[in-house]
Amino acid sequence: MAHKHPFPLYIEAQIRYFLGKENFSAGLDSELLVCESTGEIDLFTHLNGNPTGGGYWTPELTSGTSMYNPAVDKAPMYRYFIKGSSCGLMSAEITIVQSKKPYAGEDVSLVLCEFAPAVNLFELLGDDVDTNGVWSNTAVNGLFDPSIHPSGTYTYTVDNANCGVDTASVSIQVIEDAPLRNVWVKVNDFSARNNHVEVYVYSTREYQYSLDGINYQDENVFNNVPGGKQTVYVRGTDGCEYYTEDIYIRTFPTFFTPNGDGNNDFWQLKDFPDETYIIYIYNRYGSLMKKMTQNQFWDGTLNGKPLNSSDYWFKVITEKGEVLQGNFSLLRN
Predict the structure, then answer these.
(1) Are residues 93 and 132 in the same domain?
(2) 292 & 312 share domain
(3) Is residue 3 in a domain?
(4) CATH number of the domain that 130 lies in?
(5) Residue span of the structural domain in which 197 resides
(6) Domains in the chain: how many in total?
(7) What CATH number is given to the structural domain containing 298?
(8) Is position 103 within any domain?
(9) Which residues contact 305 (CB under 8 A, 6 or more apart)?
(10) HEC profile for 142-186?
(11) CA distance linking residue 152 with residue 293, whole number of Å
(12) pTM of the model
């Protein structure tokens, strides 16, 4: 009886074919991300698949091997070749993708009024910032609207794979429109030359100032302020926060002309708050010429006799114990 072969003849033929065939491969195409600081790299180890060693590279690497040095090897693509006696010449390529150390910009802080327009946060990070980053808050996505988005810190992240990761943050405080509480108004009055007002706001924000609520200025000092009641107005330059305060500028006449013409015949305090005070008027030798209270005036006489043109000094003592002093001229034609 004939011996039966365990495999059909066509299967046996296929097994003999594959056993005799050379198992060569150049691998599969791939990409290599190269950073500015990358050192030498073995390109062979970055081929995908299961490449066979012993091949060659085109263009040839400076090293003469498969070691790639980004400082001297500048081709955008390198192809690996391997030749087998049965399969002929096979190849696979590596594409060089140049990258760099990531730069997300610089941290910054920002204060915004709730009425302010939307802000592009990316523009705040500085110059030469990588554009391939992402924001921590996808709802904002780099465009911050103070009427919608809350105060907080928003982080921009740039991930350049093995070249590293860099982040930068924008810290934002949204200011609501509300009265200011940290304001100090300094009144420098009772001066014959320059009654002035200084306004201080203890804040890093920018403000504008006014004495009539209409005309505002950036300077926080008002010079040559007229006597009497005044109102100080403060507002944020962006429209948020406000402040008002009534003040009183005390002044005194620097001269009077008691000649009976009905014009400037008396010396008295007019721009002065409604409070009790006593006035003492002295001549240049320190002799008392007149003592009077609020709402009283001096006609330039002593014991009913007109005094000659001269300079006089006075002292005001208020009910609060404040002492104010000055001088004025009596002028006669």
Answers:
(1) no
(2) yes
(3) no
(4) 2.60.40.10
(5) 183-249
(6) 4
(7) 2.60.40
(8) no
(9) none
(10) CEECCCCCCCEEEEEEEECHHHCEEEEEEEEEEECCCECCCEEEE
(11) 60
(12) 0.60
In tens digits, what is the pLDDT along the chain, a chain of 333 residues? 444 444 444 444 343 444 444 578 899 999 998 887 778 999 999 999 999 999 999 999 999 999 999 889 999 999 999 987 666 889 999 999 888 889 999 999 999 999 889 999 999 999 999 999 999 987 677 899 999 999 999 999 999 887 889 999 999 999 999 999 999 999 999 988 899 999 999 998 999 999 999 999 999 999 999 999 999 999 999 889 999 999 999 999 999 999 988 899 999 998 888 889 999 999 999 999 999 998 899 999 999 999 999 999 999 999 999 999 999 999 997
On whether residue 315 sits in a domain, the answer given is: yes
Asked if residue 195 belongs to a domain, the reply is yes
Q: Determine contact, residues 78/68, Cβ cutoff 8 Å.
A: yes
Q: Which amino acid is at 173?
A: Q
Strand partners, 315: 280, 325
Q: Indicate if the alpha-carbon torsion angle 68, 72, 76, 81 is positive or negative.
A: negative
Question: Given the structure tokens 């073995």, which residue do they identify?
Answer: 42
Instruction: Count Cβ atoms below 10 Å from residue 236 Cβ, excluding itself.
Output: 21
Half-sphere exposure of 299 (CA within 13 A, CB side): 10
Q: What H or E segment, with its residue span, contains residue 81?
A: strand 77-84
Is the previous residue joined to 102 through a cis bond, with omega within 30 degrees of 0?
no
Tokens (6 digits) for 309: 């043109």
By DSSP bridging, strand 323-330 and strand 255-256 are: parallel
Whole-angstrom distance, CA of residue 127 vs CA of residue 133: 14
